[in-house]
Design a protein that fits this description.
This protein is mainly alpha-helical and 225 residues long. 56% of the residues lie in helices and 4% in strands.
Length: 225
């Protein structure tokens, strides 16, 4: 409650963006939980939309469902689904009616339910059926050697961070992992390059700065196929 004033400032900033025909990304569930399930929606999205419409701002809401094949494993696949836009024409209640927020949330929920996959945590078969990418034996053959090299080289950094944050990060695991890798990975690559250079005394060692990220990408593609 003591931070409620920040909400008002955020709402005002959003309305200013809407006036300039800008785009705001809103996570209407209002929380972060690692599950394949649509959670109850908060009222913030509805309030923003209706406030904009009352000011004659021609706002359009595009429902989007973001689906992850995994929450804590690297190499995840992401499926992004878009639904039908929501405008004032879809509300039967007037935008100044007290029922408008409830009706808006019901429309948004119905849209999102078509876009967010419902999967039980233990249903590995359904998850693979939805997210697995068809591939050929040739693709796996081509990717095998660079993927294995990439896995061996990057394993120490990834699992060091993974072990440090796994029990601390809770449902924000991916965000924290991404943030830490963003800052540590360039240092890691440069450190390996310099070590190889001092051992071999060869200028070709500096090609590793470009080559190591390619092998990391090979690991991700190999896992996905």
């Amino acid at each position: 409650a003591e931070n409620l004033g920040h909400n008002y400032a955020t709402f005002d900033a959003c309305q200013e963006i809407f006036r300039q025909n800008g785009i705001v990304l809103i996570f209407s569930e209002g929380g972060s939980t690692n599950e394949w399930h649509l959670r109850p929606l908060k009222k913030g999205t509805a309030r923003l939309a209706i406030t904009a419409w009352l000011q004659n701002i021609p706002l359009e809401i595009i429902p989007a469902g973001i689906n992850y094949s995994s929450f804590r494993k690297f190499g995840k696949a992401i499926l992004l689904n878009f639904g039908n836009s929501i405008t004032t024409e879809r509300l039967t209640a007037g935008i100044s009616d007290n029922k408008a927020i409830t009706e808006f949330n019901e429309i948004l929920k119905n849209e999102l339910q078509k876009l967010v996959y419902e999967i039980e945590d233990t249903d590995e078969i359904k998850r693979k059926k939805i997210f697995q990418v068809p591939s050929s034996a040739f693709q796996k053959f081509i990717l095998f050697i660079p993927a294995m090299a990439g896995y061996a080289v990057h394993l120490p950094l990834y699992y060091a961070i993974h072990g440090f944050i796994y029990k601390r990060a809770h449902d924000h695991y991916d965000s924290i992992m991404l943030g830490l890798l963003f800052f540590t990975y360039p240092v890691y690559v440069i450190a390996i390059t310099l070590i190889v250079f001092f051992i071999t005394n060869s200028g070709y060692s500096f090609f590793l700065i470009a080559l190591l990220p390619v092998t990391a990408l090979s690991v991700l593609h190999y896992r996905n196929v």
